[in-house]
Amino acid sequence: xxxxxxxxxxxxxxxxxxxxxxxxxxxxxxxxxxxxxxxxxxxxxxxxxxxxxxxxxxxxxxxxxxxxxxxxxxxxxxxxxxxxxxxxxxxxxxxxxxxxxxxxxxxxxxxxxxxxxxxxxxxxxxxxxxxxxxxxxxxxxxxxxxxxxxxxxxxxxxxxxxxxxxxxxxxxxxxxxxxxxxxxxxxxxxxxxxxxxxxxxxxxxxxxxxxxxxxxxxxxxxxxxxxxxxxxxxxxxxxxxxxxxxxxxxxxxxxxxxxxxxxxxxxxxxxxxxxxxxxxxxxxxxxxxxxxxxxxxxxxxxxxxxxxxxxxxxxxxxxxxxxxxxxxxxxxxxxxxxxxx
Length: 341
Description:
Elements (H helix, E strand, L loop, with lengths): L1 E7 L2 E6 L10 E9 L7 H4 L10 E9 L11 E4 L9 H4 L7 H5 L10 E4 L1 H6 L1 E3 L6 H4 L2 H13 L8 E4 L3 H12 L5 E5 L2 H9 L4 E4 L4 H8 L7 E4 L4 H8 L7 E4 L13 H7 L2 E4 L5 H12 L9 E6 L3 H10 L5 E5 L3
Parallel strand pairs: 8-9, 8-11, 9-10, 11-12, 12-13, 14-15
Antiparallel strand pairs: 1-2, 3-4, 3-6, 3-15, 4-5, 5-7
Helix pairs in contact: 6-7, 6-12
């Protein structure tokens, strides 16, 4: 089979490799669509494991099943979770599924930027989500990122009437905008440094879009009638974005750190201000199987037009071009790789 093998952000090679062999309890999926995630282009994070095949926002069709698999049939259209929890450890039993060691060590074989992937038995058991007829493979690639967004907004307690600021209007930032609106949030504002993405934020539900380089807290007070937002969601992995988030939230509000920073990144914390203002700081990583299921149902119910976020569709041979589009973060939102093209 063909696969796009990652060596670094500027060196992704189309190579031939054996189609994975499946064993008992496993499944072979023909990949029809796989989204490029912002984490895929975090070179500092990926380079230490190179060469490898990336791609974890996967949708496709089951083409073979190992002995003992009874819940699925060949021909089933599915979305796939690449990380799943054990459901039995201390973390899982206390509701912290995404810090489970099993979740952090499981994966598909070899990765979604390939024609076929093998699902280990643990993924078949709890990481396969059949697609409703009305959900396309392309739309299904949003299941994983939306699951992460769902978990984040649950931890940040987004609920009806709350005002929300989303810092960074890339794909996940736009999902945050749309979900906040779907959950009944009051006013939702987005920021970015790229006009293309600010325009997209307005198109996908933000009431206002602000250049991140401006005096954001002052602009927010103008928009919110003298107040700052109740919840700030930081989707840009820079120290400047984090600091801006901490200075842009109302007293008693919450800052959700959704995007990771660079390795070793630190920010000066105004500890007394955080304490005196009652600021809550929460973080989030990944999503649980329950989040995946909820995300897929939201996509099925057309709560938001996720398909309209796709700006580029590329074949495996053009995966390198896709990485440059995502890493450039300028005139793309969602880039989809179609391995069967």
